[in-house]
Design brief:
The chain contains ten helices and no strands. By secondary structure, it is mainly α.
Length: 238
């Protein structure tokens, strides 16, 4: 998986590293609740859990793009790809949090990346994999605020967030359905250019055709997915 075109166009990787980061700052994002930003919490309360999970992944993509000029983000993009696959079917992914980075002169870069990836992987393990979406509300608040902290100077991010929340409220409103009954919210939903309504099946199938567990260790191998009841999990793989 590559960095999304709209993030490349935004040139967030060219922004100066002018935000602050420390262990204590990172811990604050891990413990965010609705009380820390009631306005954001109200907006997120109007979307369902699958939309919240998509917002988590999309915010991680912003952080990855922001840091891509300074760090090797290839592993992060593999984790993002597996997370989008889990959006379609949680059986696809085998995700766990990455190892914590050293607290050194590069921690201002590695710290936000680790925090965002950890919260995304925790969202998968604790919510998507267990079909219990109760934790996704707080996770989405945490990732949005972390994204604002790291990428907030981007003019596109400032418009992307409210526009995306409005779009999610329209296509994935919170109807209090069980998590497994909610339709996947695809990556293209978070692209400001959007996509043609009714093309969701084609977009899903095109994405699945790009997946290869031999290239991505965070995707389950074919034989494991076969054992879990999936007959042709990777249609693009011979």
């Amino acid at each position: 998986m590559k960095i999304a075109n709209y993030l490349l166009t935004a040139k967030v990787d060219e922004l100066p590293i002018d935000y602050k980061w420390s262990v204590s700052i990172g811990n604050k994002f891990h413990g965010v609740t609705n009380d820390d930003n009631p306005k954001l919490g109200k907006a997120l309360g109007q979307i369902n859990e699958k939309a919240s999970y998509g917002l988590v992944i999309a915010c991680v993509e912003w952080v990855v793009a922001r840091l891509s000029r300074h760090l090797d983000v290839s592993d992060a993009l593999l984790r993002v790809e597996a997370s989008w696959a889990a959006m379609i079917d949680p059986r696809y992914a085998q995700l766990s949090a990455p190892d914590a980075p050293d607290v050194d002169e590069r921690f201002v870069l590695t710290g936000p990346l680790w925090s965002s990836l950890t919260m995304m992987c925790d969202s998968f393990e604790e919510s998507i994999q267990t079909s219990d979406g109760t934790g996704l509300f707080d996770s989405s608040i945490s990732l949005v605020l972390l994204g604002q902290h790291v990428v907030g100077r981007s003019p596109l991010f400032k418009t992307w967030l409210p526009d995306t929340l409005q779009r999610l409220q329209q296509i994935s409103p919170n109807r209090h359905q069980p998590l497994p009954n909610q339709a996947p919210v695809l990556r293209e939903t978070f692209d400001p250019a959007g996509y043609v309504a009714g093309s969701e099946d084609a977009l899903r199938d095109a994405f699945l055709a790009t997946l290869d567990p031999d290239r991505n260790p965070y995707l389950r191998p074919v034989d494991e997915l076969n054992a879990l009841g999936m007959t042709t999990p990777y249609p693009g793989k011979p």
